[in-house]
Amino acid sequence: MYSLIRPFLFSLEAENAHQLSIQALALVGKLPFSPLVTPSNPTTVMGLNFKNPIGLAAGADKNGEAIDGFGKLGFGFIEVGTVTPLAQDGNPKPRQFRVLEAEGIINRNGFNNKGVDVLIENVKKAKYDGILGINIGKNALTPIEHSLDDYLTCLRKVYEYCDYVTVNISSPNTKNLRSLQYGEALDDLLVNLKKEQAQLLQKIGQYRPLVLKIAPDLTDEEIASVADSLVRHQIDGVIAGNTTLSRESVVGLTHFEQQGGLSGKPLHQLSSRLIARLSVELNGRIPIIGSGGIHSLESGQEKINAGASLLQVYSAMIYQGPSLIQRLAKHVKLK
């Protein structure tokens, strides 16, 4: 059916098509039945039991408006957000561009969302019974030196309403955000988030894993440094990775010159390299969630073989529809 819908969606500007899809999936979520079965391919990661290892990456459902609809497409877990303490419009439009020839997408959204309180209310209403993650970030107007305040605000608010929390410090579309991936800035962020996690555990009585989402553009030395920080601060998981600033794989193609993060099929090799390097540095001490460029069963399996325990998909679903989720969830072989 998606092959019939796609021409209409692709006739619209990318962001308009996205908003329409969210509205449609919100309606699908209210149906008394599921149009697709959630494949059973169970695995346990971070102490959480996943029905299958295929998840929806953050960015698709920023405000948690269509959790139940996405849940009916076969995902083993869903990650909503990125959400910030206060609502913000994000960067000026247009800010999403399809690189059609390569099945890629460039976006410079800038964490556009309705704020953490709206997200929480939507999560409370959702009936989805799979694993739910919430991805948190900082407001654009918050100075980078005060970023911790925003992350702590979000962590305190979302902790009770999800199964894990992802800390996004790798979007290329919020000024200076990626500087938090390095050295003392990263250590300071992680040590304080772990302290807050411990306090929330005492308050709520349940442990919510903390996951860090990093960029695929890190050098080998930077990957080693990040891995060291993850282990020292006992972070529960890492998502490898976010969108890339590189245009090496799409030079000359439609919209390749647009600013922002590139996702989709062109990101596959770069993200697989990140997973493989992280896997060597972490040596099994922290699980890796592979994200970026998964566009086929073979590309998903490559990331599992490189060291990922779970996978996340978003851009390829725009090009191929839910059938990709079904194939991955049913047939990917876990190590």
TrEMBL record:
UniProt keyword list: Cell membrane, Flavoprotein, FMN, Membrane, Oxidoreductase, Pyrimidine biosynthesis
Gene Ontology biological-process entries: 'de novo' pyrimidine nucleobase biosynthetic process; 'de novo' UMP biosynthetic process
Residues forming the catalytic site: 171
Pathway noted in the entry: Pyrimidine metabolism; UMP biosynthesis via de novo pathway; orotate from (S)-dihydroorotate (quinone route): step 1/1
Its membrane topology: Peripheral membrane protein
Cofactor(s) this protein requires: FMN
Binding sites annotated in the UniProt record for substrate: 62, 107-111, 168, 173, 242-243
Primary enzyme class: oxidoreductase
One annotated GO molecular function: dihydroorotate dehydrogenase (quinone) activity
Pfam families (UniProt xref): DHO_dh
Swiss-Prot/TrEMBL catalytic activity: (S)-dihydroorotate + a quinone = orotate + a quinol
Cofactor note: Binds 1 FMN per subunit.
Residues holding FMN: 58-62, 82, 135, 168, 213, 241, 264, 293, 314-315
Keyword Flavoprotein: yes
EC number: 1.3.5.2
Domain Dihydroorotate dehydrogenase catalytic span(s) in chain numbering: 43-332
Identification of the protein by name: Dihydroorotate dehydrogenase (quinone)
Origin species: Mannheimia pernigra
Gene: pyrD
